[in-house]
Amino acid sequence: TTMTTAGTLAFRGTFFHTPTYGQVEALRDTVVVVQHGRIARIAEGNKEIALVHEFGLSEVRRLKDTQFFIPGFIDTHVHAPQYKFTGTGTDVPLMEWLKKYTFKAEGSYRDLDAAHHRYSLLLKRFLANGTTTAMYYGSLHLEPTVVLVDAIERLGQRAVVGKVNMDRHSPSDYIESTSEGLRDAEAFIRYTLHKKCSRIQPCITPRFIPTCTPELMKGLASLARQYGTHIQSHISECCGEVNCVRELHPEFASDTALFEQAGLLTPRTVMAHGTLLSDQDLRHLASRGTAVSHCPLSNFFFGDACFRVNHALSLGVKVGLGTDVAGGISPSMLTAQRMAVVNSRCLRAHKLAQSGGTTVTADMEVDVLGWREALWLATVGGAQALDLSHAVGTFAEGKEFDALLVDTGLGGTCGPFDVFPDESDEQRLEKFLQLGDDRNLAEVFVQGVCVKRGHVFEREAAAEGQRAVEAGKQGAGDAEAAAEEEEERRMRAPTPTEPEAALVDLKAATPTVPSIAPAASSASIAQLAATVPAAAGEEEGAEGGEEGQEGLQELRAGEAEAVNASEVEPPVTKRPRL
Ligand code: GUN
Ligand code: ZN
């Protein structure tokens, strides 16, 4: 990680950001000096010469008239192993969608070569679209989620990452026992912390209530306390999910009450969706400092309701914005911002329709967001949700330099819109946010390092250059490099075994925590069982093996030996480096 250490950078030009909700602040003709990844100074342009001397700058880069900086986007909800099918498969409600597409797609990341390839593509796509920070769900499995963390480290994004936990109501080939889940979640936390990469933080990730026993949730909450990690899950997302939880846990009034009981609502918790949260729930989340990740696009497809951002903010809830790839069909936070605006206008239209009249009242306007509010959500709101306000979200001395160099001057068919000489620079910002895309992102910076310039991902290019140099050198470094390679190879070894017959296990897995633990009713089990694909293995086989299936084959072979895996604590020595 030392190969791309940031030196001192300095830029002179326009910087836009949104320190206050709904207000754009323009820092015009401003010099920003970046040292060791942090903003060391923000000063007026006429201080340039003094700064050159003070910081010993060799260059102050002047932005073109058509260029400006904005803070990097923060995506608070992404399912990394769903990237492969992004843009497809939104034809069924959430609970069916999980069974029909999602679990299978995520399981296929057990092929670690495929995971490596797909995660690299995902990260390049997100960085190219200006997402400098993301909160990721990995998959159920430890090893591919480790591959994700390694890829994030390599390509230079900032991230909060969790291994997904699910120990009930899941397909038999995509489930873990409670003890395995807790063990792997802890192994993942330790692996990630061990990297000592300041950009990457581990996260506790109970998928959502229907697939997590109260015992698992409580165990995960205690891991989060022990390691001080973030927590992420889904809350009150849609009718199917809410009805399922009511059936499983009738003694709890809401998802919020259940998460509270499990100890999962903390100031570092981000709960996705929340379209069906009551005011009481929202107040409760606010009192815990827990954030909601607003995912407008996936809410349109799966959410059954429009989340009221301004209402939640007014009750003191932290709100960030998420793409929710692949429930949201776009990986771009520009799309998420536009969808947040559209979502808010749907709320307005709904109120007008409900009134039965043609008079727009002030009450109908309260939900409306404009592009300025959306930009705030995508930057400051995300930083607050992820407990990163001290580091990112705006331009301020002492904060880290996560920034997008936007160029609106592409023109003609080279870019997505045109600019004209009589426009203000703020109108150009507005055009970019409404009409722009990755072509307008000339450079993307994370922690003061340019991670993408044009079509080149700088960290990857640097690493490749470094490898070439090292390959040329014989001797001293080789043993260390070989050891590292071996370490990586071992981390990528397939998981030992998986529990068989998850649905049979359901009764055994019935929660043992008395206050939270009614037996799942047989009706709900039947309902969930009915949605599990009868022959998941066959269908996956039919998908064909365009991306090496050997890892999967090995895992399947291993499954046959997984007798009562859920009751046996696997030997800890299977986990290297922890
Ligand atoms: N609820 C549980 N899992 C998921 C998921 O993968 N995506 C969405 N949108 N909601 C979920
Ligand atoms: Zn989600």
Automatic annotation (TrEMBL):
Cofactor note: Binds 1 zinc ion per subunit.
Listed Gene3D superfamilies: Metal-dependent hydrolases (3.20.20.140), Urease, subunit C, domain 1 (2.30.40.10)
InterPro entries to which the protein is assigned, alphabetical: Amidohydro-rel (IPR006680), Guanine_deaminase (IPR014311), Metal-dep_hydrolase_composite (IPR011059), Metal_Hydrolase (IPR032466), Metallo-dep_hydrolases (IPR051607)
Region Disordered, annotated ranges: 464-499, 532-578
Catalytic reaction(s) noted: guanine + H2O + H(+) = xanthine + NH4(+)
Metabolic or biological pathway: Purine metabolism; guanine degradation; xanthine from guanine: step 1/1
Its job: Catalyzes the hydrolytic deamination of guanine, producing xanthine and ammonia.
Record's protein name: Guanine deaminase
Organism field: Astrephomene gubernaculifera
Lineage of producing organism: Eukaryota, Viridiplantae, Chlorophyta, core chlorophytes, Chlorophyceae
